[in-house]
């Protein structure tokens, strides 16, 4: 069975506090990929960056002092285009870049292939891709670069190259 991991496609990363034109540009591709996965009967897990109101007091908040993805705010929610597609999927809330809960779900799953898409290539996508590679090293893991965007186009490309060096397939 194939697993599609949709990383942090939340309002704050697309057109909110940390949004970018590059993030907005991938929305159509991401929605299409999720629809295709649902039609194929693939398993889908959405991750959601999830912070509390004390975000600025956390280690991440001290290094990135821009409040974003605060639980239950408009910016925390998945983008409207994806919300109708969450039926029969899992949603993993994660307080930091990589998710140990996601790794656990992958470890107990029986996946022949894992694909990651979403935001941001250079932070959360790469963090989760590397965690999954360490968790299930014999399972092919890929990232669809047309369904990802980084903080900058340059850091997006660097992250793709780093993942490629770690034997993650870049599409």
Keywords, separated by commas or semicolons:
171 residues, alpha/beta, Rossmann fold, 6-stranded parallel β-sheet
Description:
- The chain is an alpha/beta fold.
- The chain has one domain: Isochorismatase-like (Rossmann fold).
- 39% of the residues lie in helices and 21% in strands.
- The chain has six helices and six strands.
- It has a six-stranded parallel β-sheet with strand order 3-2-1-4-5-6.
- Helix 6 (153-165) links the parallel strand 5 (141-149) and strand 6.
- The longest helix has 20 residues, at 21-40.
- It starts with a strand and ends with a strand.
- The model has no long low-confidence stretch (mean pLDDT 98).
The helix/strand class is alpha/beta
User: Could you spell the SSE succession in H and E letters?
Assistant: EHHEHEHEHEHE
**CATH topology heading:** Rossmann fold
Task: Specify the CATH architecture.
Answer: 3-Layer(aba) Sandwich
């Amino acid at each position: 069975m194939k697993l599609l991991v949709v990383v942090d496609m939340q309002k704050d990363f697309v057109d909110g506090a940390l949004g970018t034109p590059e993030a907005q540009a991938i929305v159509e591709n991401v929605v299409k990929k999720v629809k295709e996965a649902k039609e194929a009967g693939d398993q889908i897990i959405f991750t959601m960056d999830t912070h509390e109101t004390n975000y600025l007091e956390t280690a991440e908040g001290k290094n990135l002092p821009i409040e974003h993805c605060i639980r239950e705010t408009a910016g925390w929610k998945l983008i409207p285009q994806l919300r109708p597609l969450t039926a029969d999927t899992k949603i993993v809330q994660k307080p930091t870049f990589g998710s140990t809960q996601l790794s656990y779900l992958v470890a107990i799953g029986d996946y022949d292939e894992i694909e990651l898409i979403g935001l941001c290539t250079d932070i959360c996508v790469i963090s989760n891709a590397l965690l999954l590679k360490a968790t299930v090293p014999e399972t092919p893991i890929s990232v669809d670069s047309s369904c990802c965007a980084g903080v900058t186009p340059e850091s997006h490309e660097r992250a793709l190259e780093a993942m490629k060096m770690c034997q993650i397939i870049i599409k």
